[in-house]
Amino acid sequence: MNPKVSILVPIYKVENFIECCATSLFEQNFEHIEYIFVNDKSPDRSIELLKGVIEKYPHRKANVKIIDHQENKGLAGARNTGVENATGEYILHVDSDDYLDLNAIDLLYTKAVETNSDIVTCNYVLEWGEVQKEAVQDIGKNKVHFINLMLSAQAIVGVVNKLFRRKLYIDNKITALEGVNYGEDYVTSPRLAYYANSVSKIDIPVYHYIQTNTNSYTKKLTKEHINNILLVFKELTDFFGNKKDYDLYKNAILEGKLRKKIELFFISDSKYWEELSLAFPEVNQITDLSILSLKEKITYRLIENKNFLLLKLYRRTYNFTVYVYQKLKGRL
Prior knowledge:
This protein has helices spanning 18-26, 46-55, 58-61, 74-85, 104-115, 143-151, 166-171, 184-195, 223-241, 250-267, 273-276, 294-304, 308-329; strands at residues 5-11, 33-39, 64-68, 90-93, 99-100, 119-128, 131-135, 162-165, 199-210. It is α/β, with parallel strands linked by helices.
């Protein structure tokens, strides 16, 4: 079989989720799929459970590969291994604690063929058990607008809700930054989009993004995660800074740095704040703060004045309010 779509799935500590994920992939109503599961040295029963699911789908078995890492390489490394071994015309990344609607591949691939798109994206569904919320993917008015929305942190940058033509990776030597496990999508999706001829979207949310996996690569923020974000923006600045049309993107990169700096303050331990206050000094040239939400404006003003005591109080109050809201919505 010459696969039309390669589904790439990194595996690490997902024994409570992998059966649901794999079942949704094997039951797709689209036949020409290649499945590549990358065992990122998972220490639990994830692979054993995956193999049990595979046995239930003998017609899919010949098109399944399980690739074992000899050491844990992290999410970016697992994604790279998947891409290196893919042979499909298109690639879809699926995190192993998530799942797809059974018509997801058919809808995405059909849209790609109809529009001759290099990237086809979709909204996705955030799930907390029985509670769901749709997250909307904005692709803008054109490709440049789409890239700017991602760079400025105003649109979903994740790779998991996007079908990519594999040639984007291969012809342009695009890889995820190995060792970067927080923000790795932020540096990958905009670079792939830069080389795309066209981007389209289906209006149906066919990707289900599970919010209850405490072992997720991105659930626990550490100093390493902060360093990851700093590295991501260095790579983005270097990449777009070397392009002739850099002027189309430089303001969006600056806005993205500002929003991510604010975000890091809001989700990191306060022991990192003094060091974080020195990150991205170039954002100080932004004078129009109307681009920010009220929460972002308040946080940034407190950062500017190094009023960390008041920032702690504001963050605690805001987080408590969000907690109560999420509790009432059944998301906790």
